[in-house]
Amino acid sequence: MSDGHAVVVGASLAGLRGAEALRRAGFAGTLTLVGDEPHRPYDRPPLSKAALTGAVAPEATLLPNLHALEAEWRLGIAAIGLDRQARRIRLADGATLPYDRLLIATGSRARSWPNPAEAGLVGIHTLRGRDDAASLRRALAAGPKRVLVIGAGFIGCEVAASCRALDLPVTLIDPGPAPLARILGQPVGEIVAALHRALGVDLRSRTKVERLEGDASGRVVRAVLGDGSSVETDLVVVALGAVRNTEWLHGSGLDAGPGGIACDEAGHVLDTEGRPDRSIAAAGDVARFPHPLYDGRPVALEHWGHAVAQGEHAGRLLAGAASGAAYAEMPAFWSSQGSITIKSVGLTQGADSMVFAQGSPKEGRFVVVYGREGRCIAAVSFDSARWLPAYAERIAARAPFPPIRGGTDEHSLAVLAPDFPEERTAP
Predict the structure, then answer these.
(1) Angle in degrees, 0-180, between the axes of helices 304-318 and 13-24, rounded to the nearest 10
(2) Cα-based distances in Å from 4 to 23, 67, 99, 210, 220
(3) Rounded distance, CA 307 to CA 310, Å?
(4) Which tens digits make up the pLDDT trace of 354-409?
(5) Superfamily of chain region 339-396
């Protein structure tokens, strides 16, 4: 069926590319895109880097349209409910939208500081959207006496590096043993720690913020740490991860919760009984799906390339052009911190071994490969991305671990334990 009404809820990268794929696959009916932000789809990766340093204005991050959409845009209006029996979506302005096919791409939002009173202090920021980046950029340009970043995941590390690029004093606090240790393992996390200390970041690992305190005017002035010490600060960036936007689906009968929306291998959403609804697909951060490269383990990914690939797959699926094929795109991400670019293929989660395969950790240019039960499952490069395509092929082929031998610039291939901290989260 090439006509009818297709609705995309979530007007960001996955939603935009999904809508374009619908059109390219021959869908000629009515197309509506719904977004809770007032902006057309924009690029998020620059928001924690170039948009903070002033190299790129937050409003200059609009994504290009790669295919004519001929669509109605309903921006600045959140979807608040889904009636699958009537095939209608309820919007925050009281309107409803009928649909014949629906793409859910509502993504995720930044996790707030858990104490609402403290989170409301002036000078407390989170970073997820364009308006967040614009607000934080203005605060940084005002010259804070010290920036405190809580959380040393990718966003926290990128923000800390951006602050140092602006020559601002910055303290980075994380309860883990080292930055990114939950994702890359402690040996690599220690390298990331050394990188940030070399940038001039005041890094405090194995440390928790107990509370944030404000002055009489309601502006943050310090953070009290778990050991009783404090950090004087007038600008705090809370970087505690993301929350998937699934609350609006409560009561819809879909299997949706904090971990995302459950999907089958093709990308159709599942109800609470595990049955697919073939009129609805999900894509991007919000979709939890069984990845064939990882024995069908459900995963939800928050990476740029994944949002593009899964959005396009979901668009073809809803247009009837995907033949129910499983979505099996190789996970990949990148991060820029200081002068170092970190890139990855595959998923490190569950790795039981790792090797520094190429380059030298001491020099800061290397490739580390992760294995699980004798098979290559992921590779991460620090300024050595030329090796990643070869490792991606081996991961896809379920090649044995350890990986490539006899390559140029080969390291010792000593097998190490990744030593992931407990309560580790997927990349």
Answers:
(1) 40
(2) 13, 19, 8, 53, 52
(3) 5
(4) 999 988 888 889 999 999 999 999 999 999 999 899 999 999 999 999 876 665 55
(5) FAD/NAD-linked reductase, C-terminal dimerisation domain (3.30.390.30)
